[in-house]
Design goal:
Length: about 70
């Protein structure tokens, strides 16, 4: 959620997360940067909707583990 919390996708944080993963995570870099570009191109209301969907998904996932 921290990647999309601000007005722009936090690319620096995403890079730090990928750097802390095994070598296979580096293959995801182009996809992550493409997702960042798509997020940044969204209107503010669409960004809010993405955040709400992420929160809803997290809530549902936590309910399944209980």
């Amino acid at each position: 959620m921290s990647l999309v919390w601000g007005p722009r996708f936090d690319r620096e944080h995403a890079l730090r997360l990928l750097a802390s993963r095994p070598a296979g995570a580096a293959a995801a870099l182009p996809e992550v940067m493409a997702a960042a570009d798509r997020f940044d191109a969204l209107a503010m209301e669409a960004k809010r909707r993405v955040r709400r969907l992420i929160l809803r998904h997290e809530q549902r996932a936590s309910m399944r583990t209980v």
